[in-house]
Amino acid sequence: MANTKLIVLAFSLYIMLLPFVFDLANAQGLTSGFYNLSCPSAEKLVKTMTEKFVAHAPSFAPSLLRLHFHDCFVRGCDASVLVNSTSNNTAEKDSIPNLTLRGFQIIDAIKSALEKQCPGVVSCADIVALVARDAVTAIGGPTWPVLTGRRDGTKSLATDALTELPAPTMNITQLKANFASVGLSVKDLAVLSGGHTIGISHCTSFAIRLYNFTGKNDSDPSLHPNYVALLKKQCPLTTLLTSIVEMDPGSFRTFDTHYYSVVGRRKGMFTSDGALLTDSTTLAYVQAQASPQSSTFLTDFGQSMMNMGKIGVLTGTSGTIRNQCAIIN
Ligand code: HEM
Ligand SMILES: *[C@@H]1O[C@H](CO)[C@@H](O)[C@H](O)[C@H]1NC(C)=O
Ligand SMILES: *[C@@H]1O[C@H](CO)[C@@H](O)[C@H](O)[C@H]1NC(C)=O
Ligand SMILES: *[C@@H]1O[C@H](CO)[C@@H](O)[C@H](O)[C@H]1NC(C)=O
Ligand SMILES: *[C@@H]1O[C@H](CO)[C@@H](O)[C@H](O)[C@H]1NC(C)=O
Ligand SMILES: *[C@@H]1O[C@H](CO)[C@@H](O)[C@H](O)[C@H]1NC(C)=O
Ligand SMILES: *[C@@H]1O[C@H](CO)[C@@H](O)[C@H](O)[C@H]1NC(C)=O
Ligand SMILES: CC(=O)N[C@H]1CO[C@H](CO)[C@@H](O)[C@@H]1O
Which domains does the chain have, with CATH numbers? Predict the structure, then answer.
């Protein structure tokens, strides 16, 4: 009896640790300039096309950054986020957190240009990683080296997105556990949350904080009352489902440290943003970004993006190179 329990326990541990062991083995496979010989113009082409798209429609820059985040947190950075559902599979794209992802057509256009130059060589997962960096740089944000050599996954399941992505309602304990589960640190959590220095949110993503927070027609007491009032004005109940608001109000197009001063004043949009004030490490990070002298955000962001870009990557002979990012070969 005891033996059976032990075996069950050992087996569960094995299953739990398996993805982790797998990640560590594969993360080593990324290199700088993976396409130097096989597709020398790849990185330049991605950069030029991204710059063109972003110049034409700057609001896509945040969306392209977020696409890489959603890709990496679900099954690793394997482009599973780009796959279309089929008659027998509901893909990540069609799960609740996806609803607001944008920019797929930009990735698809870049992939098809690359296929013309070097058929079957450049992975969709690398394109997503390069585009996220190039889009941030194109709007005046920082730059960082993107290692390449990722390969594309062969699975995309809507249910994975629900269980693996952090939710905006999460508290600090849940966020730290979520980041730890993909090998990211508490510092990475504080730094990458700064991605919310650009972009927009749908009111539905935080409406719970404004209305009926505890079911008593109340709002979240941890949110600054002035900000509650402003957000209620921007998110009236009559148009709750369709309204959108700027994140990092007043600075949502600029990649800067403004997010941290907003969060420091209890005006973080999501519970997850405000949660950074409830842990000593993340609080210290938020406070340090408030002054230009002690701010390290712009360089930290590149380092944490490199950490994120290694999550669960497939390299070598694992995975495939898709012909079209939306379709598993
Ligand atoms: C810490 C956990 C995180 C949570 C809970 C979270 C949650 C969200 C939510 C709910 C939205 C709004 C979606 C909408 O309603 O339209 C959003 C937007 C966004 N997130 Fe996050 N996020 C997190 C981390 C990140 C990270 C790590 C990045 C990138 C480094 C990121 C980048 C963005 C960007 C750029 C947008 C704006 C998208 C746009 O304008 O299209 N987020 N996030
Ligand atoms: C590709 O070229 C760059 C620049 O010369 C170099 O730093 C990098 O190591 C090269 N990578 C490979 C895999 O050849
Ligand atoms: C799912 O459908 C595709 C065609 O859309 C087919 O090629 C594939 O074999 C099917 N997979 C399963 C598991 O039924
Ligand atoms: C965070 O949320 C979980 C699940 O609701 C709860 O068990 C835990 O006590 C919360 N932790 C904090 C620090 O609020
Ligand atoms: C708040 O909750 C109460 C009780 O569940 C419900 O009757 C009311 O319609 C809710 N108000 C809003 C604005 O959702
Ligand atoms: C709920 O609060 C709003 C103001 O935010 C008020 O207009 C409304 O009458 C309140 N409803 C109830 C049932 O208390
Ligand atoms: C994937 O789905 C999108 C949205 O439904 C569609 O526009 C696109 O053409 C599809 N891609 C492929 C390769 O079928
Ligand atoms: C961008 C995208 O693919 N959005 C899809 C998210 O999922 C819903 C269904 O839950 C689809 O209707 C959207 O098209």
Answer: 42-164 (1.10.520.10), 172-305 (1.10.420.10)
